[in-house]
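Predict structure. Chain length: 445.
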Amino acid sequence: MTTDAPRAGTARPPTAAPVPHRWRNLATLTGVSMIDNTEAGVTTTLFPSIAHALRLDSGHLGLLAALGKVVAVPFGPTWVWLAGRIGRRGAIVASTVVAGGFGIAAGFATSWLQLVVFNTLMSAAIIGSAPIANAVITDSFDDRARGRAVGYFYGFVTLVSSLLGQVTALFTGLTDGWRYGMWTISGLSILAGLAVAVFFREPGIGAAEAQLADLDERDRVKTPVSVRSVFSLFKIPTFSLMMLSRLLSGHLLIAIFGVQFLVAERHFTNAVAASVLLPFGLGYFAGTIGGGWLLTLLDRVLPDRGRVAYIQAAQVFFAVVAFFATQFGYGGIAVYCVLWALMGFGQGLNPPVNRPIVAAVILPELRGQAFAIFVTVFETIGWAVFSLGAGQLADSLGIQAVFLWTLVVLMLVNAAVLTALHLTYPRDVRRVTAELDRRRAVALS
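Prediction complete.
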């Protein structure tokens, strides 16, 4: 309920009171996602040691990462569907605990087949929390505050998971240390899932919208979630453009092949190469936090097109830094730490703007499925294509050449494609605002 409850017949309340428990929910989701993110990338971080133990190569890494992403395509929307049946809290708990179990099993793998099966099953489970968490954040914070909330969420998730990734890499100094690393992170995943069961509180769909906050949830939701309504999302021009942008997001590849690049192309040890994960995380943290505040400023100065200019600039910045980070050799790991921090900053600029852009053009009840498509379908397809293609091409062309086309050229293409948002985004935002105003008027009539 709002503190500024409207009189009967009032079309819109002046403001909506903050959603109860929103910061506790954000902290809880951030905590569980820190562990999930670390577990999702643990095989990438430890792959040089896994490769040595199981006699694998970069092609295996590409296939491992690709399968882990491809399996998310059907399972991401499935987890969101399940959340609609058992509640979002129950779905997040189930996703995280099951993922931890499969991660522990992967740590016992003695062959490539066992590793790829259990890692793929782990990925199918762990993907469930991401779209649900994004939907909860949009239901907990209004449009003006979403950029900052998303920035805090992704900033702390990446910062801490990067630190945990570097700590996990220290296990490689032990005999079969990669197994201990996987068991440790997977055990923490199970504990994190149990923490969600204790601390998370459901905000309710549309709870942060000024037009809907003081209405009964039955009056907030008018479009039933169905296969037809989900497919109708692609009729929204802004949403379709953002999905295309996901397929062009070559910067995703740095998280998969970054450490392997430094080992194979620059000849650092696994442990030393993994030291770039912390500065990358620090840079990402700075990008998400700073980007969230910058977005708030741009929304005041350029309310219709500030977000579009911002997201374009983020793609260009990353491409320029990636060119210098990957196409030239430097003497020590310290230089790479600085460049990885800058790439992390460039990548971190994206979540505070792309999630709010998607949320602003989608009706509240469909945001869960929209984020499932965004995060677990199109982003996942992009990851899979880049991972599989890069893994195969890296063996023949080298990772450096692959990075030139994916991290630099493709990112510049992405920035150019996003220019179309200047036309579609303001129009799609007005459409959603009009529908929410209509729902309020009907509910109060």
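Summary: Confidence is low (pLDDT under 50) at residues 1-14.
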